[in-house]
Specification:
single chain, 311 residues, alpha+beta, Cathepsin B, Chain A, three-stranded antiparallel β-sheet, 8 helices, disordered C terminus
């Protein structure tokens, strides 16, 4: 089929963003960090989970394993209101270079929490499946790929449409097959009991500020012939805690490391974005070769005397 590009991104952006001028098409208006950077900070207590075992008694070659006891990061009865919150999760804020990169930011923060050496630019450029914006066919209908498979557009563009959990899982699983586990229709209470209570953050798909999601008038036809309607204002962040009244997040739209949202708002946002989430499989994590460990982690474990003898 012969297609032509849409007449600029303003057409798509206008249809999606007009009802909520305060939001960008995927992840909303960026927050400028105070120092103009977007550094990821390694959790201060992460290195205690790295242990060393000599391969033999006669060599300095060392292997790295991960202690799965991440629940030691969990602060129970956070703010004296029940529940639990995971502390030490790396926190990004969105700024002008990453307008709609909330899914990628969440993925990199999650990987960094587990001491995996990944930065945002590398993730976007080398791992994230991406495709062009929808285009108009000769029949006047818009055609495009599925957000379950690709990030639609550019995460550095204010008009980026975002992506869903299977797309991010495909990106992370380029490190190791099965490392990322896409979750669908898992109740929030079960996400908390199965993951948060064990110190394992979960990427959560909802909306900006957990506002009520709505189906945009903007749509495009997928390769399988079905019609996809964009859900506004789509957003992804890390679920890191809960209590009697709130769920807690590491949210790139927030300037604070721990952001609470009312439970009823979170539940509505979660339902509106198809009840999707993503977790890391700790057993697959243990199989990652040492070159995926952060340099800070390797230095802490091995010291400098090995001079690259790490395996």
């Amino acid at each position: 089929m012969i297609v032509k590009k849409l007449s600029g991104l303003c057409w798509a952006a206008g249809l999606i963003c007009a009802p909520l001028a305060m939001f960008l098409c995927s992840c909303g208006e960026a927050i400028e960090p105070d120092d103009g950077t977007a550094d990821i900070l390694l959790p201060a207590n992460a290195l205690q989970y790295l242990t060393t075992e000599p391969a033999t008694e006669t060599t300095v070659t060392t292997t790295v394993t991960l202690n799965p006891a991440w629940q030691e990061n969990v602060v129970e009865n956070y703010n004296y209101s029940g529940g639990a919150v995971i502390k030490g999760v790396p926190h990004f804020t969105q700024f002008t270079s990453y307008y709609t990169a909330c899914e990628s930011i969440s993925a990199v923060s999650l990987l960094q929490y587990y001491c995996v050496d990944m930065d945002l630019d590398r993730f976007i450029d080398d791992y994230l499946p991406r495709t062009d914006y929808p285009v108009t066919g000769t029949d006047g209908q818009p055609y495009g790929e599925s957000p379950w498979k690709y990030f639609i557009g550019d995460p550095r563009d204010a008009g980026g449409f975002g992506c869903y959990n299977t797309c991010i899982a495909d990106a992370i699983n380029k490190l190791a097959d099965g490392l990322a586990v896409p979750l669908k229709e898992v109740p929030l209470s079960k996400l908390c009991s199965d993951y948060i209570d064990k110190g394992q953050p979960v990427i959560f798909w909802g909306t900006i500020n957990m506002v009520t999601p709505y189906q945009s008038e903007f749509y495009w036809i997928l390769p399988d012939g079905t019609t996809y309607y964009f859900i506004n204002p789509e957003h992804a962040c890390l679920l890191i805690g809960y209590d009697d009244n709130y769920y807690y997040f590491s949210d790139s739209m927030s300037g604070t490391e721990i952001t609470p949202y009312a439970k009823w708002q979170v539940e509505a946002a979660y339902d509106g974005l198809f009840q999707q989430a993503l977790a890391i499989d700790p057993l697959v994590l243990e199989t990652l070769p040492s070159f995926w460990r952060t340099e800070a982690a390797k230095s802490e474990v091995f010291g400098t005397e090995l001079n690259g003898a790490v395996t």
